[in-house]
Design a protein that fits this description.
331 residues, mainly alpha, 3 domains, two-stranded antiparallel ribbon, 60% helix, elongated
């Protein structure tokens, strides 16, 4: 039936053995795309030939169980003997199927599955990794008592006295922390009720401030923009957090890894900067990463190219807005 063979294929048209056939060639097609589009096109031509060798062109794609192939004679050369009408129909079917299969493979090769990230879900590994990278994985912590805050702020003046008492007690070193807390409590108890009340209030305010800071940072994550202060803290901690990740990734896949992060850095007053993390080691007597092994070429090559690109990404006002201004410099 000409109309059925020419009917538009709807979403989800590939089913059963046809879908199985297409899926069996998906990974090779993706691999070919990584090499070049020409290689992918040649592979697709081969897939189309295999398709029609397996599924005769005269059988409708969506209703193959209801139809049998046309009864078409075959010549001694192995080619079908077609009427002009059949030849045109076959040509149209093949042309349409070429376009259909191209879009089918193209969509599935370039489609990126969106990661469902919940910033409030501790069980989400992507969320946990992001919070760890951004330094937002810690909560406000347990509320400190007044004596704890007082003891922390004043311990430098009490340290010698405590050390003498602890040494004289003959207690094991493992009990030092417990003994220190008991010492602080005892000294705190000697303060007036008014002073103790002030320190209790300070501890309460400090905990509320910490809780508010956690909420503010969570809000920053939701909006996608951290404050310059928080962003700089994150940037400064990247080597200790991102470094081991990059190193482990490179070793696991046996490939070199280079991560470059660039933009207006707060402590540089919003000037554009590039932070790099490498796992690229040359086969030399003393293995060194790319940025150190060839400083000049790296500086004037990838780093400079990246900085030039960053110039097009931020306006002067956007850079100034990311400047980290010290409190004593604020108006």
């Amino acid at each position: 039936d000409t109309d059925i063979l020419s009917a538009k294929l709807m979403k989800g048209w590939a089913k059963s053995e046809r879908k199985t056939f297409l899926m069996s060639h998906l990974d090779p097609y993706k691999a070919a795309l990584l090499v070049s589009s020409d290689k992918a096109d040649k592979l697709l031509d081969n897939i189309i030939n295999l398709w029609f060798a397996k599924f005769h062109w005269s059988i409708p794609v969506t209703q193959s169980h209801l139809y049998k192939p046309f009864s078409i004679p075959v010549g001694p050369d192995g080619f079908e003997i077609l009427t002009d009408e059949q030849a045109q129909l076959k040509k149209d079917v093949i042309k349409r199927m070429q376009a259909t299969l191209y879009h089918w493979y193209d969509y599935r090769s370039k489609k990126v599955k969106k990661l469902q990230i919940s910033k409030k879900t501790n069980d989400d590994p992507i969320s946990r990794l992001l919070k760890r990278l951004l330094g937002t994985n810690e909560g406000p912590g347990k509320r400190a008592a007044g004596w704890q805050l007082w003891g922390k702020d004043n311990f430098d003046t009490l340290k010698s006295e405590f050390n003498e008492e602890f040494k004289a007690s003959g207690k094991r070193e493992a009990l030092r922390a417990t003994a220190c807390n008991e010492f602080k409590k005892a000294r705190f108890a000697k303060l007036s009720q008014e002073e103790q009340g002030e320190w209790d209030l300070k501890a309460s305010k400090a905990h509320k401030t910490a809780k508010k800071r956690v909420k503010d940072r969570e809000a920053e994550l939701e909006t996608g923009v951290m404050s310059p202060e928080d962003a700089q803290i994150c940037i400064d901690s990247l080597p200790s957090v991102l470094g081991p990740l990059v190193d482990a990734l490179g070793k696991a896949i046996n490939m070199h890894v280079l991560v470059q992060i660039g933009g207006p850095e707060p402590k540089q007053m919003g000037q554009l900067n590039v932070i790099k993390q490498c796992q690229l080691f040359a086969l030399t007597a003393v293995p060194r990463c790319w940025a150190l092994a060839d400083k000049e070429k790296f500086k004037h090559g990838p780093r400079k190219a990246f900085l030039n690109f960053l110039e097009t990404c931020y306006s002067p006002d956007e850079r100034r807005a990311r400047a980290l201004i010290k409190s004593d410099e604020q108006p």
